[in-house]
Structures are given as C-alpha cells and as structure tokens.
Fold this sequence. Notes:
Elements: H1 17-21, E1 22-24, H2 25-30, H3 35-41, E2 49-52, E3 55-57, H4 65-75, E4 103-105, H5 106-112, E5 127-132, E6 143-148, E7 155-157, E8 160-162, H6 165-173, H7 179-191, H8 197-206, H9 215-240, E9 247-253, E10 259-267, E11 272-276, H10 285-301, E12 305-309, H11 317-333, E13 344-347
Parallel strand pairs: 5-6, 11-12
Antiparallel strand pairs: 1-3, 2-3, 4-5, 7-8, 9-10, 9-13, 10-11
Helix pairs in contact: 5-6, 6-7, 6-8, 7-9, 8-9, 9-11
Amino acid sequence: MNPDTPLSPRPLYHLSDVRHRVMTARQLREHGVTGAEAGERCRSAGPWRRLLPGVYLLHTGPATGEERLHAALMYTLPRAQVPRQPGPGATREPDPGPYGHAMITGAAALALHRFTAVPSLLSLERIDVLVPRTRRLRSTGFARIVRAHTLPRPALLTGVPVAPAARAVADAVTHMTDAGEVRRLLTEAVRGGHCEASELVRELARARLLGRPRVTETVDALLAESRSAAEGRLYDMVREQALPAPLWNVDLRLPGGPSLGCVDAFWPDHAVALELDTRAAHDGSDALWSEQSCRHEHLERLGITVVRVTPGGLRGRYALEEQAAVVRTALVASADREPAAYLLVLPR
C-alpha cells in the first residue's frame, strides 16, 4: 500500500490542523483506512506512529506537546458511537465538545494555565485526563486517567478543555513527592492570581492532601496572606467609594451574654455588619458552614444585616464598586427596618 495514498475521498479540510495529524482508529475508518492498513503504516520506518491504543500520529518524528494533549483526550473517546434516543419530554443535553466530557488536568493543565512551577508540556512524562468516574478506562502510555464524581466546568485554552487551576493543582500535588516543589506550586497558584486560597484549600481537602508535608503549613500561610490582602482592598473600598467609616474588626455580644461572633466591619448606627468569607474546607467543612449560617441567622433575628464578601469579590475596580453598592444599599435600607437589639461592640 502506498503511504502517500489519500485516506479517502472524504475531504479533511473540515478538521483543524492538529486533528489532521492525530486521529483515532474510528476516525481513520471513516476515511477509508482499516485497522490493518493503519498497523502497516506504523511499522518501522513507516510514516505513522501509534501514540496510544487506538490513537495515531500521522507523520514521522516525535509528537509535539499539542499533539500529545489531543492524543490523550482522543484516547478517552468511545471506540464506537452509541446513539441515544431521548425519551418523551426529555431535554437535549448540551454538546460536550469533540472530546466528550474529558479535560486536561494536573501538571499539563497548569502548563496551559502558564504556571512557571511545572515543566513544559514536552518534558512531562504523563498527561492527566479528568473523566467521569463511570468511564471504564485505564491509564496507559503517557495518558493517566483521573476520575471524578463531579466534573468542574473546563476552560478552553489553546483549543483544549482544561480543568480550573485549583482542581489542576490538587491533581498535580497528588503525584508530587518533593515538599519544596509542592510549596512553590501552591504559592504560585494563589500569589499568581490563578485562584483564591480558600478555593485551593477546598480542592486539596477533597483530594485528602492536607496531611501531606508542608501542604497544611503552606496553605495556612496563604490563607492568612489572602485575608490580609482582602482586608486591604476592603479598606480601599470604604475610602474610595466614600462609604461611612465603620468600626473595624470587632466582636459583637449581647449584654451579659456570649459572643455573637467577630465581623470585619460594623456600622452600629445602621446595624450593618460585613464579613470576609475566607472559609477553608479543612477548618470544618460543612460543620463550619452550618455554624456560620446559624450565627448569621441569629444576627439577622436581632436586626443586624450581614453582608458577606469573598476576597475574589474585591478584586478590581468594578468589583469594589459593585460590593460598595451592596453595602450602601444595606445602609440606606436600615432606615426602614425595626431598631436592632442593643449590642456590645468590643475590639477583636
């Protein structure tokens, strides 16, 4: 068989350039190339290479980083199309894209997110691919399968579906053994603005990584750093948006009673409290969330309006303006509410 023979009369111009170079056995069959013919072209000195089971590189020489990414995703595709007939009244699911629900995660995803603490794509021995837990796939070659009960919403980077930075960091740390490398990666994730510290900690807790050497120590420092930076942006918001000056970092108590909790800012004349929500999963997870919700409900019953703000909600000028509008609305609305209960306000 002549290796220069066209694949089939079916045109290939509808495919992207990288999908010209990397194809699955099923795609090749659609273009008239049988499995035997593909195997023949992959023999020594042949023009093709088999990168992964059922995935072929249609040129000589090593695969590029981009080709390896697409090959790893193509490996997760079903070997045969199984048509599904929707039942009566069923809604059509959104098209998951050319790679189904699979997405790149781990160090390869971080390279696409432009992290400097991970090797280049070509230097990576493994490319992690996140798939639904129901998929029956095995890791093979350079494709390492990572399963998830719930898949995050991917970002499309260089035409490839990629897991969010926090999830990709957690999946990368799973396979890292050097404590210094872990610390540098976690630090870059937060200080580089790729994700919030609390978001990163939630992903690390989900992966049960918080007991690893240096992980807890590093994330605690990053959480404290993130809170400090958010407090600075909160001060800027009050000053730049001309809000009334609050009492900063105070403890609220009923006279003769226990503490109702600490808040980051309190406007006593308006009975409005503001709290930075920097919850981290390793601080109690659902139990902490339930405790905070009960405390906020108690304050609301006492006539105190509680405004929650996340550190991410204070990033950027427009975010500050939006949050300031929320606080200003709460302050103005206080005139129409019943007077709040008398509280003691003490320094934190």
